[in-house]
From TrEMBL, chains A, B:
This is EthD family reductase. Residues 50-120 form the EthD domain. Keywords: Signal. Transmembrane segments: none annotated. Residues 1-20 form the signal peptide. GO terms for molecular function: oxidoreductase activity. The lineage of its organism: Bacteria, Pseudomonadati, Bacteroidota, Cytophagia, Cytophagales. InterPro entries: Dimeric_a/b-barrel, EthD_dom. Pfam families: EthD.
């Protein structure tokens, strides 16, 4: 009887500890990280294949980044938030990394492969913003 | 003995269910949401007071959005990711909302208050991108 109770308590402790850690990692995950936003400006005649970008290009680049990559996101531009202004960007892909220098070291040897993949989904030259997550 | 075992199993089930839901809500929280990114382009002579933006402006706007706002983030531009190119944006503030029309309905009546606050932290006219979170 005592052994059963003891085992139950141990299991519950392990479970709640895992739960607490999950909650914490969710809450503080982004602040202080470095973001690398690859932004594709909209203009007449520009094209962007979101399906290829989501299923091929971004997973390839993410694969180069290893454990330095915390997460990545993709957004599809819909409109300008200011009436009568053109769409600013057709798409933005963002890498959240722990270390910018590690990011650069990982991308460097793969730059040619990344650039060779561009024409497969777009004819846009991206703008790249490196930023720090403040909140 | 059987009752204890039964109670332990019930407790473990509840605990693991809570854990599973937490993981799921983390993983799918952003996909499908609408992002409104307020982007402040860098140029010579432009200024941006990040402390005011973080502690006053963004909390004020977030307060107008109510339960439609899932979260908001702030990033501080550090550099262009392309060598020898200028910093694209000094700062970006992003609202993740469930409904764009609700966002617009909430901002509309408060537009004057929001604009009147701009000169307190910047002399930049922002670019605003409305986008859909794909991943």
């Amino acid at each position: 009887m005592k052994v059963k109770l003891f085992v139950s308590l141990i299991m519950l402790t392990i479970c709640f500890t895992a739960f607490a850690q999950e909650k914490q990692s969710t809450a503080v995950a982004e602040k202080g990280l470095t973001k690398v936003c690859v932004m594709y400006p909209f203009a007449e005649g520009k094209t962007f294949d979101m399906a290829y970008y989501e299923t091929k290009h971004m997973p390839m680049v993410a694969g180069f980044l290893g454990s330095n990559l915390v997460k990545y996101s993709i957004e599809k531009g819909i409109a300008s938030g200011i009436p009568n202004q053109p769409l600013p960007f057709m798409a933005i892909g963002t890498f959240y990394v722990k270390s910018l220098s590690e990011y650069q070291a990982a991308i460097g040897p793969n730059r040619d492969a990344i650039r060779a993949d561009f024409p497969k989904y777009t004819n846009i030259s991206p703008v790249i913003l490196v930023s720090e997550v403040v909140k």
